[in-house]
Amino acid sequence: MTDHDEGTGPEGYDVAAVEAWIADNIPALKPPLIWRRLLGGHSNLTYRIDDSAGQSAVIRRPPQGQLLPKAHDMGREWALISALGPTSVPVPAALGFCESPDVTGAWFYVMGLVDGHPLYSAEDTRAYVPEDKRCQLAFSFIDVLGDLHDIDPDSVGLGDLGKKDNYVGRQLKTWYRSWTASMEPANYDDPRAHEMQRYFLENLPEQEPAKIVHGDYGVHNCLVGRDCTVAAVVDWEISTLGDPLADLAYALNIWPDSSDELPAAPEAATTPSGFPERHELAERYAERTGRDLSKLDYYCGFNRWKSAAIVHGVYARYVEGKKSTDGIDLEEMRDRIGRSLALAEQAVNRLHS
After folding, report:
1. What residues contact residue 159 under an 8 Å CB cut-off, 6+ apart?
2. Could you read off the pLDDT of 25-61 as tens digits, one per residue?
3. Is the CATH code 3.40.1380.10 the one for domain 122-351?
4. For the domain 15-112, what is the CATH code?
5. Spatial contact of 52 and 31, defined as CB atoms under 8 Å apart
6. What tens digit of pLDDT does each residue of 256-275 get?
7. What are the two backbone dihedrals, phi and then psi, of residue 193, each rounded to the nearest 5 degrees?
């Protein structure tokens, strides 16, 4: 049963207008279409569409309602998958982009359907990746990221994707402003947030030339194919130009390592047995790209600190009553802030051990 079949219609889409647009602009698809809602994707309204000839694709638009500037950026996602299509970075095929809100109230795009599954939890990993294939998946995951970071943005038409300088410095200022603005409404502060921010600013490594950074690269944003390699990378809406080592550290932070002081969350997608450890993935990335990873723990710490600031801001909105707390464990959220700061501190300590 689909949203369309139920008579309610796919949320956010004027089916007749969108199908007419597809008929005029995407020769590979032959409406009428069957619509099936796909979960995930940062609340964007994402549907699988199957046409009358048995062809399948995916359509995606932002959620309805007032959006923050730059949030749910369909134009950015379209630019990324279009530009990366001919490269070694696997992305869904770019089929069509509509930037006229007259069709269905917002920009939307259509991309090829990829046979694969994102991994959100340990349960997903056990369902889709046999233990003897997990090493293969992890190496594919890190190799794809290395391939992305080796692309010259100008060579694929993405030289204007973002600012090319001081990526980490700008993030440190942005998220520190968020922390300080959230302290009073959250009724929560931690001296480590301030100490870490000063440390990261004062010890900022020299930034290498800007590369394309995904911004949220993890197995939750990779479609894992039947061969247990990355069939496609999705959710490019916060991608920009920046320091590839910051992108790498973010991606690595979800992978456990035997040197960790705090145990990994048992429900995380990367905790089941059979995966290589975090340091092994870092070594493979270094071999593949030739990058110097001697300051990697700086970037790991920076990402943990940034995560603390992000959760702190969300926590403040809940405490203020700006978001419904139904089903939300505020105490656990508060604990996550402290855990992230502790992990940031540990990463910095490793740099000086």
Report:
1. 153, 241
2. 999 999 999 999 987 655 789 999 999 999 999 999 9
3. no
4. 3.30.200.20
5. yes
6. 998 887 777 889 999 999 99
7. -60, -40
